[in-house]
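Fold Annotation — chain and its backbone

Fields — amino acid sequence, structure tokens

___
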Amino acid sequence: MPHRALVDHRPWLLISLIAGISYFFVSDAPIGGIWLMLWKGAGVAFLAVYAAFRGRGSDGALIAAALAFGAMGDIALETSFLIGGALFAIGHAIAITLYLRNRRAKASPSQALAGLSLLVLTPLIAALMTYPIENWLVATGYSAIVGAMAAAAWTSRFPRYRVGLGAVMFVVSDLLIFAREAAVLPDLVTGWLIWPLYYGAQFLIAVGVVQTLRKDHDRAIG
């Protein structure tokens, strides 16, 4: 966990961590209803607030918007898989725009291969897992967007062991959701992995992007 970012802006990140981690333990609680939906969205929503305050320029606005759509998607998924997925897809499209604006000047062959693998294998794995259940084409199309987001993140100038790793964790989390829906993996496995991977992914992405943008800003005024 990026210690300096947590210390410098403890309120937003700490509130996000508290909401994100605690939701994992109450997600199956009988309280249900709107409060649990809001609790679910709070973790990433506070990351969006953190990005909005700490980010710089148009890129800062883009990462804040991507996180905000993720938070809305978290909430909407509780009532509609399709609406929630659409909100996430918009967030991924915004993130892709951010990463393409910040492409690495020269990607090594291994980096390029990793990006291509994420782009191609993510929808392929989703299709193989979900075919022929209902809406398998929707799952495949959505996974293509997620794979493109991860590929763009991995080949961007943002730190791979924060933003790139976070994007890969996002891919794995979404594939586990489809594995659960298609009964490829039991709930005992997916239930323990989906949320920690997803929230951890959003946290790493938010902090990695924001810290990079702030370093750019500090160098520019220094």
